[in-house]
Amino acid sequence: MSVLRQLGLAARFLSGYLVQLTSDVPALDGPSGPAASAPITGATGICTTTMEFSNTVTRIHEDPRVTLPYTEASWSAIVDLGARVDARPAAGDVRLTVGGEPTFVSIDNQVDPEWTTAAAGPDKRRRAGALTARLTATLAPHALTQRGQGKWYPGEPLPRWQIGLVWRTDGEPLWHDDTLLADPWAEHRDPESVEPAADPDAARALLAALAEDLGLPQTQVRPAYEDGLARLAALVRAPDGGSPAGLDGLATLYEQARRSRLSTESFDIDGTHGGTGGGNHITLGGRTPADSPFLRRPDLLVSMLTYWQRHPALSYLFAGRFVGTPSQAPRVDEGRASALYELEIAFAEIARLGEEGAAPAWVTDRALRHLLADITDLREKLARQSTDTARPGILDLRRVRTVLR
Questions:
Q1: Chain centroid, CA 203 distance in Å
Q2: Roughly what angle, to the nearest 10 degrees, separates helices 361-368 and 298-310?
Q3: Residue 377 has pLDDT above 50, yes or no
Q4: Of 193, 223, 391, 400, whose CB has the highest number of CB atoms within 10 Å?
Q5: Beta strand pairing status for 105-106 and 262-263?
Q6: Does residue 199 come out as left (phi exceeding 0), alpha (psi in the -120 to 50 range) or beta?
Q7: Cα angle at 92 between 307 and 242, to 5 degrees?
Q8: In sequence order, what are the residues at sequence separation of 6 or more whose Cβ sits closer than 8 angstroms to the Cβ of residue 364?
C-alpha cells in the first residue's frame, strides 16, 4: 500500500478472505468458484473520475492436494505403469489385488465421539442409511438391504451394527419390496433416504399367507425369537476346520458418499490433513478368498514378513504419527521378546505343512494371527474360524499410511 501511495496512486487495503479460487470439486453448499459467485451490484453518484476494478488471482504453483493430487499427465502415466505392473502378476497366475477399506466420517462434524472414537451414534446411522439408499439407487436398484449385527471387538460390551447391500452380478433383481424388510433404526432415518418404512405386521401376513397355501391352521403361525445362548453354545461346540468363505465402482462410492456428506479425510485444529482410520491402510489379497495368494501360497506370506522384519526402515517410511508397541500396527520385535521365537516356530510349521501338500487355509491364520495383532487384538484377516466374513484372505498393512503429504 505504501509503495502505491508513494507513486501517487490511491490505494486501500481490502480483506482478501472473500477471494475464491476455482474449486477442484463441486461444492455441496454455496458457489463452486468465481463463476458462480454473486456479482457486484449497486450504483455510484455522479463523479468526474473514472473508477476501475480488477480482481485477478492466479496460482503460480500447484501444490499436490487431496482434491487434486496429480496432473492429468501424471495420472495417465501412473495408470499406464499400473497396467504394466498388473500384467506381470497376471502372467504368473499370482491373482494379487491391492485395495483399501474406506472409513467415512462426517464432513460437517469431526469432533463428536461418534465420528472420532465411539462405535455408534444417531447421526452415524443417518449418514449410513443415506449412503445405502444412494448406492442402492445408483449401483443396484433391486438389491437386498440387510441391517443386523456387525463386528464384535474385544473389550466392547455389545457387537456393532452393520448394513449389508447384496445384489446379483447378472443384473437380475434380487429384491423388489423393501417394505418387507425390518429397519431397527427407522427413527434415525435420514430425510434424503428413499427407503420406505417397514410394515411391522408384514412378517405375520407373509407367514399367514404361506400357512393358508399349505393348508395349515392359522394357529401354526406363532411369534418366535432367536435363542442367543443356544447359538453361542453351538459355536463353542463347533469343531475346528473349514475353508475360507473397478475403478468406476470406487468412484461411484466416493461420489455418493460425498453427496451423503461423508468423506475419508479429517483435519486437526491447525489444519493438518490426516486419515480417518482403516481408510488409509493398504490391503493385499485376492478377488475371492480362494484366489488370495497368501492362502494359496503361504510361503509367499512368510517371505514377505521375513523381508519386512529384516528391513525395519520399511515400517517407518510411510508410518503415521503413532509408531511402536502402542500403535495400531506394531512390529513383531516391538512387543514381547519371545515373539520373534514364536514367529520362527510359526514359519517352520507353515513350511512343514507345505511340504506335505496343500494345508487348510485356517492353518496359516492360526499360526500367525496372535503375532500379526496390536494391543487391542485387532488382527489380520486371513482365515479366521468365527464367521465366513472373517475369512477373506486379506492382509491389512496398518503400518502403511497412504495420506497425501
A1: 33
A2: 20
A3: no
A4: 391
A5: antiparallel
A6: beta
A7: 75
A8: 294, 295, 298, 301, 350, 382, 383
DSSP state of 114: G
Strand partners, 394: 381
Measured distance between the N- and C-terminal CA atoms of the chain, rounded to whole angstroms: 35
Name the packing angle between helices 122-139 and 247-259 (round to 10°). Answer: 140
Residue pair 137/194 in contact (Cβ under 8 Å)? The answer is yes
Q: Is 294 exposed, middle or buried (0-12, 13-18, 19+ CB in 10 A)?
A: buried
Check the CA dihedral 62-63-68-69 and report its sign: positive
Length, in residues, of the chain? 405
Q: In the structure, what pLDDT confidence band is assigned to residue 357 with cuts at 50, 70 and 90?
A: low
| Amino acid at site 41 | T
Pairwise pLDDT comparison (397 vs 349), residue with the higher score: 349
Residue 267 bridge partners (DSSP) = 273
Residue 351: strand, helix, or coil: helix
Give the closest residue to 190 by CA, choosing from 149, 148, 130, 242. Answer: 130
Q: How many CB atoms lie within 10 A of CB 95?
A: 16
How far apart CA 166 and CA 144 sit, in angstroms, is 5
- What residue ranges in 278-402 does DSSP mark as E strands? 282-285, 395-397
34, 54 Cβ separation under 8 angstroms: no
What the block records as the C-alpha cell of 230 is: 443356544
DSSP designation for 386: S
Q: Closest Cα partner for 69 from 32, 25, 35, 109?
A: 25
CA separation, residue 364 to residues 235, 336, 391 (Å)? 21, 21, 12
Q: Positive or negative, the Cα torsion across 259, 263, 266, 271?
A: negative
* Element (DSSP H or E) covering residue 148: strand 144-149
The ranges assigned to domains in the chain are 105-232, 262-397
Question: CA 127 → CA 106, 109, 192, distances in Å?
Answer: 8, 12, 10
**DSSP secondary structure string for all residues of 8-59:** T--------TT--PPPSS--SSS-SSGGGSPPP-------SS----------
